[in-house]
């Protein structure tokens, strides 16, 4: 079966151009959305992805109509490839049922994998360099005496949160995190 997907970003925009092109491409069923491309939740696209089967074809007017980013586009094309679904972009002259179309998407997938690998390598190198300088990731340790003081002040019920944070230098978020972790036990020395 041949499915179409058409999307515009706002209700004021028209889907007519895309719908006409999809009908001309002899699409059997069209999924239409008027929703921002930045939004991850797109109900019609999700529905389309649920019902496609091997041998089906997904047709779009242009690549930017279906994906939020290059990464998202590559994830979609990998999903289509796993399901054995052909993918056609009319304006971009891409058709994965052809050798050139498959080649194009394999190149895109390889570039995405290379990008992920480079990010991992840079992150790893950065962590090694930071450790060599005595720095480690994660939240900085809070002075236990300041935490204990803040918790004692909190449990005394004589101070506002603002007074506690100003007196100890402990942030409100940190204070609440220690309270949630059972800070009362810390103040009792347990």
Description:
There is one protein chain. The protein folds into 2 domains: about 1-95, Rossmann fold; about 145-185. Helices cover about 55% and strands about 10% of the residues. It has helices spanning about 15-25, 45-50, 70-85, 100-130, 145-155, 160-170, 170-180, 185, and strands spanning about 1-10, 30-35, 55-60, 85-90, 95. The protein has a 5-stranded mixed sheet with strand order 2-1-3-4-5, sandwiched between helices.
Secondary structure blueprint with pairings:
Blueprint (H helix, E strand, L loop, with lengths): L1 E7 L7 H9 L4 E6 L8 H9 L5 E4 L9 H14 L2 E4 L4 E2 L3 H34 L11 H13 L4 H8 L3 H9 L2 H5 L3
Parallel strand pairs: 1-2, 1-3, 3-4
Antiparallel strand pairs: 4-5
Helix pairs in contact: 3-4, 5-6
CATH architecture of the largest domain: 3-Layer(aba) Sandwich
Number of domains: 2
* CATH class call of the largest domain: Alpha Beta
Order of helices and strands: EHEHEHEEHHHHH
Chain oligomer state: single chain
Q: Residue ranges: pLDDT <50 for 5 or more in a row?
A: 183-190
Q: How much beta, percentage-wise?
A: 5-15%
Rg (CA only): 27 Å
Task: Enumerate the strands of the largest sheet in spatial order, edge to edge or round the barrel.
Answer: 2-1-3-4-5
Query: On the 0-100 scale, what is the average pLDDT?
Result: 86
Helix share of residues?
A: 40-55%
The separation of the N and C termini measures 67 Å
CATH topology of the largest domain: Rossmann fold
- The shape, in one word, is elongated
How many beta strands in the DSSP annotation?
5
């Amino acid at each position: 079966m041949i499915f179409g997907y058409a999307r515009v970003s706002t209700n004021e925009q028209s889907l007519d151009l895309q719908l006409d092109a999809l009908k001309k491409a002899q699409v059997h069923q069209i999924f239409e959305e008027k929703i921002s491309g930045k939004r991850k939740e797109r109900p019609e696209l999700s529905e389309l992805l649920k019902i496609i089967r091997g041998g089906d074809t997904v047709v779009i007017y242009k690549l930017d109509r279906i994906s939020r980013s290059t990464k998202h586009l590559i994830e979609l094309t990998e999903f289509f490839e796993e399901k054995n679904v052909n993918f056609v972009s009319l304006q971009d002259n891409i058709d994965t049922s052809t050798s050139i179309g498959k080649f194009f998407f394999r190149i895109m997938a390889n570039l995405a994998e290379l990008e992920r690998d480079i990010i991992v390598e840079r992150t790893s190198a950065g962590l090694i360099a930071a450790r060599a300088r005595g720095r480690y990731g994660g939240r900085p340790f809070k002075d236990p005496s300041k935490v204990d003081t803040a918790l004692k002040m909190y449990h005394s019920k004589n101070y506002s949160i603002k007074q506690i944070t100003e007196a100890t230098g402990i942030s409100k978020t940190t204070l609440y995190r220690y309270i949630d972790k059972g800070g009362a036990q810390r103040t009792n020395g347990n």
